[in-house]
Write a structure and sequence with these properties.
With 293 residues, the chain is an alpha/beta fold. The protein has 10 helices and 9 strands. It has a 9-stranded mixed β-sheet, sandwiched between helices. The two termini are 28 Å apart. GO terms for molecular function: acyltransferase activity, transferring groups other than amino-acyl groups. InterPro entries: AB_hydrolase_fold (IPR029058), Esterase-like (IPR000801), Mycobacterial_A85_antigen (IPR050583).
Length: 293
């Protein structure tokens, strides 16, 4: 499997990354070098990383309902609790968003996110975290079967549902660390666009942001990064990735290039593949260990 890996922002050095992330990148790719040097290849996940292994202790996956004042109805989300979950311990939270045709179940049905997270936990490669997979379509009268133009406003409206309804509910219901450095936001396709849009517009809420194969809902760089210095100071990690045969590559590459021009540290990762879960499963496997270090 051919893969390429780059560290953006015109030659991001070890000193510009948190120590924990550097250690993980070293383990994953052998070394971290400045951008002017050839980038080593990231190692693919181990064979079977996305298959259930009965020898691995599984986390707990549940479907919840939370009250949404934004939508005026109860809404659903899936919540993953890590193996060995302890109600007396506080955890960071990853909010993981789906694509245009998905629901709160897409990441576990198509992306087997819980299986991947279980393996990472068993391998002790990630910080124990709670993962929330919501329905990113904030409306009662819009479904995945509707035309895309009808769905787009509901995906944009989810920003308010996420900030004002879902996050407060999670922080009231689960033992989580309720600070920006303990919140991550990532997603695929339409959810990748949401993650960049919402994450970069709300740096006081999220310190870790990731967009996988981000869709055309991604707002212009100038609209999202109005203060590059604030982004440099507040972001713990910004991840931008796409498949090398993805028709939406131009969006992710353009965003990466704008980040480089603004000298904003970020990880730019190109996977081998198209616009599908074979790419996004690997993205999750590579991103999750970098969070909350």
């Amino acid at each position: 499997m051919r893969q390429r890996f780059g560290i953006g922002a015109c030659g991001l050095t070890r000193q510009q990354l948190p120590v924990g992330i550097v250690m993980l990148l070293v383990a994953m790719i052998g070394s971290v070098r400045a951008a002017e040097s050839p980038m080593p290849s990231i190692q693919p996940p181990p064979k079977g990383f996305d298959r259930v292994d009965q020898k691995i202790v599984a986390g707990k996956l549940t479907t919840i309902e939370y009250p949404s004042k934004t939508v005026g109805a109860n809404r659903k989300a899936q919540v993953y609790l890590p193996p060995g979950f302890d109600a007396n311990q506080k955890y960071p939270v990853l909010y993981l968003l789906h694509g245009i045709g998905g629901t709160e179940q897409e990441w576990t049905r198509g992306g087997v996110a819980n299986v991947i997270l279980d393996r990472l936990a068993a391998e002790k490669k990630m910080v124990p975290m709670i993962v929330v997979m919501p329905n990113g379509r904030a409306a009662t009268d819009v479904s995945p079967r509707d035309a895309i133009p009808k769905q787009v406003p509901a995906f944009a409206r989810f920003e308010q549902d996420l900030l004002n309804d879902l996050i407060p509910y999670i922080e009231k219901t689960y033992p989580v660390k309720a600070d920006r450095e303990s919140r991550a936001l990532a997603g695929l396709s339409m959810g990748g666009g949401q993650s960049l849009n919402f994450g970069l517009s709300n740096l006081d809420t999220f310190a870790w942001v990731g967009g996988f194969s981000s869709a055309p809902n991604t707002r212009k760089f100038a609209d999202l990064v109005k203060n590059p210095e604030a982004a440099k100071q507040k972001l713990k990690l910004l991840w931008v990735s796409c498949g090398d045969r993805d028709g939406l590559m131009g969006i992710s590459r353009g965003f990466h290039e704008a980040l480089e021009q603004a000298k904003i540290p970020h990880v730019w990762h190109v996977e081998s593949g198209g616009h599908d879960f074979e790419v996004w499963k690997r993205d999750l496997y590579h991103l999750a260990p970098l969070l909350f270090r």
